[in-house]
Amino acid sequence: MGAYKYLQEFWQKKQSDVFRFLARLRNWEYRQLPAVHRASRPTRQDKARRVGYKAKQGYCIYRVRVKRGDRKTKVAKGIVYGKPTNHGVNKIKMARNLRSVAEERVGRKCSTLRVLNSYWVAQDAAHKWYEVVMVDPYHKVIRDDPRVNWICKPTMKHRELRGLTSAGRKGRGLFNKGTRATKLRPSVRASYRRRNLIASVATAKRGLLARNPEESRKIEDHLDNIGWTSTTSTTRA
Question: What's this model's pTM, rounded to 2 decimal places?
C-alpha cells in the first residue's frame, strides 16, 4: 500500500488512542482560531487530493467552523405571536448539511475564489470544522490546466450557493438513484413544474418547431384544417 492508503485507514479508525489524542490537540488549536481562516496545508492530504486538491499554484485551503445541532427560529425573546402550530423555536431541522453551510460561508468570505470541494476534519461538542478547497480562477496555472480550467467559466461563480458542489448535490438528493429519485431531477422545482403546469398550445408549437420543424408543420396544417386559429402565430422556418 502507498502512503495515502495508510493515511486513509488512520482517519477511518477514529476511536483509536492515537487518533483521539491528536483530535484533542487539534480541536484545542482550532478553537483559538477565527471561524474562517486560511490553512497553510491540508490536514488530510489523502482526502484533499481525492476531492481535487493539487499542491501547486492557484489552489488554497480554508478551514471553517460551523455550529453543530439544530437551527433556531429567529424571533424576539423566543416568542412566536401566532398559532400554536408555529410556536416551535428549538429543534428546527435545516434542509442542507453543515458541510454545505461551511462552503457557503467561505465562498462569501473569499468571493473572488471558487469553491471546488470540501471535507470534514474535526468536531467537538459544539462545533464542526471543515476544510474547503478553493481555486483562483484568474491564476495562469489554473487557466492553462485543461483538467480544472472548467471552473474559470462565469457560470461557475458561487457554485456553493446554488447547490452545485458535492455537498450541495447531496443535500438536494441527487446522490440517490432509481425510483427514489424520480422527482428530484433536474431539481425538485423543475420536476414539479413539469408535472403540474400546463403549457399553452402556442408554446408547445414553438418548442416542437425548434426540435422537429417537419412534424410541426404537419400539426400546424392539421390545426388549420379543423379551423383552429392561434392568437400567437408561429412563423414557419
Answer: 0.79
